[in-house]
Write a structure and sequence with these properties.
The protein is of the alpha+beta class. It contains ten helices and twelve strands.
């Protein structure tokens, strides 16, 4: 085949909508829960629990990712990972994803192939697949993801269930994505693992169901930062959450990056978003193995750190 005959060397405008969809879906493997995948007017997914957990999120080029920092494969993985975290935060298991994409007609087919590979790689990692979606033209790359999940017979874990006397816990360290972003902004390549953590979060999809089985009373994912997301739990549960700064896990490379950039790493750990680990409350004896206690729940309102109001960075906002 000559280069001129190879669709991978052209643009999406040359290829066309349906051929592009075919490249993204043909030959893919679906889990047993997918009865009918892409190709018909809609997909069919088994719902043995009789309830379906649904969430959606959008990623906009220049706002949520930069293609001079992230590869198209990275962007695909990140898009799935952050939506999978929302499903896990309800205590559910991912069953499928719908992916809608807008991009310029001049976008290289090879870039969309890489994006598609990233989407499928992450969907497979969390035990699900891509079951449908849509494509259209636009002036920049935009992805909209809808994620579906199964509660497997358990009640959903809401943000509103925290009780005085509970403990506050994290499923993993925070601050790595924020540190990576700061390193990119500074033009530093000294900590490649932190740069990678900013490009693609890799939370464990099993943490949410494990927390639900352990009896988590409330839960959310850390998308906007521990302080900001703790604020959501506190407001919805009408309680006070107090975080112990000494109990926060700050990875060694985050500490070193803070020294390099002159930033207190606790600010990244508490105020940085996009780690997509889970923040939850439990009865004191129910915290699952692998989770880290970082604070307490009491009567009152709001979020404090070491008993006082936090004056550092608090949360990401979209506007």
């Amino acid at each position: 085949m000559s280069q001129a005959d190879d669709p991978a060397t052209g643009t999406v405008g040359d290829l066309g909508e349906f051929a592009l969809i075919g490249r993204a879906t043909t030959g893919r493997v679906h889990p047993p829960s997918v009865a009918i995948g892409p190709g018909d007017d809609a997909a069919v997914i088994a719902a043995p629990d009789s309830r379906v957990v649904v969430t959606t999120d959008m990623l906009v080029e220049g706002r949520h990712f930069r293609l001079d920092w992230s590869s198209h494969h990275d962007v695909g993985r990140k898009a799935i990972a952050q939506n999978a975290a929302d499903i896990a935060a309800m205590g559910a298991r991912c069953t499928g994803f719908l992916v809608s994409m807008s991009c310029p007609s001049t976008t290289a087919v090879s870039d969309v192939d890489a994006l598609t590979a990233g989407l499928w790689a992450e969907a497979t990692r969390v035990g699900a697949s891509i079951v449908g979606g849509d494509v259209t033209g636009g002036d920049r790359l935009v992805l909209s993801i809808t994620a579906l999940g199964d509660l497997e017979g358990r009640p959903p874990v809401l943000r509103s269930g925290a009780r005085p006397g509970d403990v506050l816990a994290l499923s993993g360290p925070t601050g790595r994505s924020a540190a990576g972003w700061a390193l990119y902004e500074a033009g530093s390549t000294t900590h490649p693992d932190l740069l990678a953590a900013h490009r693609v979060p890799t939370p464990d999809p099993a943490d949410g169901p494990a927390a639900a089985r352990a009896g988590a009373s409330s839960m959310c994912d850390v998308s906007d930062g521990v302080i900001g997301d703790a604020g959501h739990l506190a407001a919805m549960s009408a309680v006070r959450l107090d975080i112990s700064s000494a109990d926060m896990e700050i990875p060694e490379d985050v500490v070193h990056a803070g020294t390099e950039l002159g930033v207190d790493p606790l600010h990244w750990a508490l105020g940085g978003g996009e780690d997509h680990v889970l923040l939850a409350t439990f009865a004191s004896d129910d915290v699952p193995t692998g989770w880290r206690r970082i604070g307490s729940v009491s009567a009152g309102t709001g979020v404090t750190v070491d008993g006082v109001r936090w004056e550092g960075p608090a949360a990401w906002t979209s506007f």
